[in-house]
Amino acid sequence: MRETRADTAQAVVLAIGLHLLLFLLMIAGLWWDRSNPQVQAMGSPISAELVDANALSQAMQRTLAERPEPAQPEPPVVETPAEEETVPPPQPLPTPVVEDAPTPPQPEAQEFIPEPDAVDQEEVTDQPTPTPAEEQERQEAKQRQDQVDLTERKRQEEAERKRRLAEQAEAERQARLADIRRQREAAQREARLAEQKLRQIADAQARTASDSAAAAPAGQGGQDTDLAARYQAALTQAILSKWTRPETVPLGARCKLVIRQLPGGEVMSAEVSSPCAYDEQGRRSIEAAVLKAQPLPYAGFEPVFQRTLILNFEARDR
C-alpha cells in the first residue's frame, strides 16, 4: 500500500501531539514535587551517650534491674497501595486582592451637610395665609400687568419699525438727490464742452476766412472770398469729425495738407506738407482722417472747387 501525503501529515500531527503530552506530564511531575515540600520536626534534635552498665552505681543497677519489660509493638498493618493517580490534585484558588476583586469597592457615603433655610420660619409663620379671593385678585393683577407690558412692548416695536422705515426713505431720497445732482453736473459739463467747441469752430472759421481773404483778394480770379472761406471751414469740420487727436499733438498746432480730389468730393490722396508741427503719429492720423471723411463737401461749393486743394489744418477736439 502506497503512503499518501495525508497519511504523512496525520503521522506528523500524532507525533507532535504525543510529544506535547509527554511534555505536559513532565511539567505536572515537577509541579507536584514543588508543591509537597518535606516537613521538618520542630525543636532541637535528640542526643544520646553510651555508658557501660558495670560502671554505674549499685542503686542505679538495681533500678535498671527492676524496670518492667517494654511492651512489644504490634506489627504495622500493610495496606495495598492504591493505583497512582496521574491527574494532579486541584490547585487552591489564589486569594483575591483589591484590584482583582470582581466588583469595585463602593465609595463611602458622603456626610450629609444640612443646608440653612434662606427663609425665616418665624416670619413665614407670622404671615397670614392668603385666602382664595386674595389669590385670585393677585393673579388678575399680574395678568393686567403682563398685558400692559405686552402693549408697551408692541408700541415700542412699532415705533422702532416706523423709525427704520423713515431712515430708509430718507436714505433713498438722499441717493436720488445725489443722482440728480450728478446728472445735472454732467449735463452742465457737456453743455460747457459743446459751447467751447462751437466757440473754437467759430474762431477757426474766422481765422480761415481771414487767411483766405489775405491769400486771395476780393474778386481775384473771379472767386467769391466768402464762399471760399465757408468751403475751407466745411472741409476742416468734415476732417475733424473723423479725426481723434493724439496726445502728442497739442491743441492749436497747425499742419499743411495737400488733398487731391475728384468732383463730388472723392479723395485720391492726402499728404502732409511743410510746415507741419505734428509728429509722425499725428501726421499719419490726419492723413487717415482725410480718407475717412470722403466724400468731402462739394454740393454748393462748385465755384471754389479745386482738384488739388491746399488746406491749413489746425488741431482741435471735435
What report would you give on this structure?
50% of the residues lie in helices and 8% in strands. With 318 residues, the protein is mainly alpha-helical. The chain has a three-stranded antiparallel β-sheet, covered by helices on one side. Helix 4 crosses helix 5. The chain is elongated, with a radius of gyration of 70 Å. The two termini are 123 Å apart.
What portion of residues belong to β-strands? Answer: 5-15%
| End-to-end Cα distance | 123 Å
Order of helices and strands: HHHHHEEHE
Number of strands: 3
CATH class of the domain at 199-314: Alpha Beta
The helix fraction, in percent, is 40-55%
Task: Return Rg in Å.
Answer: 70 Å
Largest sheet: 3 strands, antiparallel
Mean pLDDT: 76
Q: Estimate the global geometry from the Cα principal axes.
A: elongated
Strand order of the largest sheet: 2-1-3
Weakly predicted, low-confidence segments: 81-85, 213-223
Q: What structural category characterises the helix and strand content?
A: mainly alpha
Outline the secondary-structure elements:
Layout: H1 5-35, H2 58-66, H3 121-126, H4 132-215, H5 225-240, E1 254-261, E2 267-276, H6 280-292, E3 308-314
Antiparallel strand pairs: 1-2, 1-3
List keywords for this structure.
single chain; 318 residues; mainly alpha; Fusion Protein Consisting Of Minor Coat Protein, Glycine Rich Linker, Tola, And A His Tag, Chain: A, Domain 2; three-stranded antiparallel sheet; 8% strand; membrane; Cell envelope integrity protein TolA; Tol-Pal_TolA
